[in-house]
From TrEMBL:
A GO molecular-function descriptor: hydrolase activity
Stated family: Belongs to the FAH family.
SUPFAM superfamilies: FAH
Organism: Pseudarthrobacter humi
InterPro entries xref list: FAH, Fumarylacetoacetase-like_C, Fumarylacetoacetase_C_sf
Domain of life: Bacteria
Protein's recorded name: Fumarylacetoacetate hydrolase family protein
Keywords: Hydrolase, Metal-binding
UniProt xrefs under Pfam families: FAA_hydrolase
Amino acid sequence: MKFAQIGAPGAEQPVLLHGDRHYSLQSITPAINGDFLSNGGPAAAAAALAAGTLPEVTSDVVRYGAPVVRPSAVVCVGLNYAAHAAESGARPPEHPVIFLKTPNTVSGPDDAVAIPRGSTKTDWEVELGIIIGTRASYLDSPEAARDHIGGFVVVDDLSERDFQLNVSGGQWSKGKSSPGFCPTGPYLVTPDEVDAGNLRLRSWVNGEIRQDSSTADMIFDAETIVWNLSQYMVLEPGDLICTGTPEGVALSGRFPYLKAGDVVEIEIDGLGRQRHEFIA
């Protein structure tokens, strides 16, 4: 199943996508959030769709917000593709490298993004995102993690590299947490429809291809990441995990950093596509 939030910023409504149609879930939940995911919401939505009790939402113009309302945490994995680690000047890690983005960075997939004040090195990163479906703490194995994954999303883990690397004090989050720096969506796709270990992911800047890779090249797969994180923190329903980006970012030195007027598009097969313009 595919779930989304559509409507004006701050007034989105939850919907289920079936084919090219949107069906309102407001009779089941006020939002696609942790409560919906962990308390039988997807099953209730499927049953209501089958029964024909969900009203269709029709509109000539649809704006997608982030498909999960404000997560309690946005946890990110760095250097999770060997080629990206190499272009960053780092060795592939033996253990997942973790950093945090603030939850208020999460924005709609097609919303404009402001270049941060003082930025000279704003960068793009197409990533597979994991949405936690049920609370996860001290999981016994990566296999056990599968039962705690509520779905997958497209994420652009935007970064300001000077903030991240040169004025960071040793941590990366300064360069990861500017407003709008986590465009997410358009859809949350449930795990039964996704082969998370074999998804093509791509990015373009102004129509020119930048990244073209597969999640098969991840050093740590989705289940391993959730299991590993659960040893160090409690993952709550609705939390977002960004699983790392492949090679092809501006940090490589092969491409210019972003400026006002640039347009970034990112896509993961089966999970949808984003398009966001950068503004001053």
